[in-house]
UniProtKB/TrEMBL annotation, chains A, B:
SUPFAM superfamilies: Glyoxalase/Bleomycin resistance protein/Dihydroxybiphenyl dioxygenase
NCBIfam families: metmalonyl_epim
Organism whose genome encodes this protein: Nitratireductor thuwali
Pfam name, any one: Glyoxalase_4
Record-linked InterPro entries: Glyas_Bleomycin-R_OHBP_Dase, MeMalonyl-CoA_epimerase, MMCE/EMCE_epimerase, VOC_core
Source taxon at top rank: Bacteria
CDD domains per record: MMCE
Upper classification of the organism: Bacteria, Pseudomonadati, Pseudomonadota, Alphaproteobacteria, Hyphomicrobiales
Protein name: VOC domain-containing protein
PROSITE patterns cross-referenced by the UniProt entry: VOC
Family (UniProt): Belongs to the methylmalonyl-CoA epimerase family.
PANTHER family associated with the record: METHYLMALONYL-COA EPIMERASE, METHYLMALONYL-COA EPIMERASE, MITOCHONDRIAL
Domain VOC: 4-134
Keywords (A to Z) from UniProt: Metal-binding
Keyword Metal-binding: yes
Amino acid sequence: MLGRLNHVAIAVPDLAAATAIYRDTLGAAVSQPQALPEHGVTVVFVELPNAKVELLEPLGEASPIAAFLEKSPSGGIHHICYEVNDILAARDRLKAAGARVVGDGEPKIGAHGKPVLFLHPKDFAGTLVELEQV
Amino acid sequence: MLGRLNHVAIAVPDLAAATAIYRDTLGAAVSQPQALPEHGVTVVFVELPNAKVELLEPLGEASPIAAFLEKSPSGGIHHICYEVNDILAARDRLKAAGARVVGDGEPKIGAHGKPVLFLHPKDFAGTLVELEQV
């Protein structure tokens, strides 16, 4: 069921500083920052040859990464995103296995314009997992 | 300088349980567990089409992931590994930029039999970064 590793998302308190680390210190190709108010983040994409790293900074009042940064003020890896071909089939398989999907279980349109679901860290080795249909 | 995303390492308290999640619940291809006493971990490789996820369980008295699991008993993403072509050149560039390398700054032979270095989370957006020469 599981396809490619699509991206690793790193929550950061200072997007400009984190972007400079990846662009200047590590020598990676980075995008311009993109504000995604409907997702409560501003994102910079770090383009690696086989996957992306996404640097996320909170945007707005109720950012979904605000609580994470309160606990880890220096930042840290927030979630990992895997690709699936059929997100509804994936959801049904996971629920049948007793795993929890975050929210109401209905896929939302994610930051790449594709249907996504988040899986509960308690059922996935302590890791917040995003599934994206590709 | 930065090449492919080689792997994401997830520290877990129960390797058999985490392996079952990835193999049975998520439907991924997983390796047999491999004890790496010189690295203080037992590892299961989750083989995705473009990258690996490594599930790490502490092994022995002084496992490098023991402190992490004390803070996060359910597990969590421990580090992210990027590939570089020349690890000594990478180290020198990072040190010149003022970034800290963990330990004495000399590459060690990592779990894949290749030279690796770990970079200090405080200088890399709160994230423990491994560089592996490929």
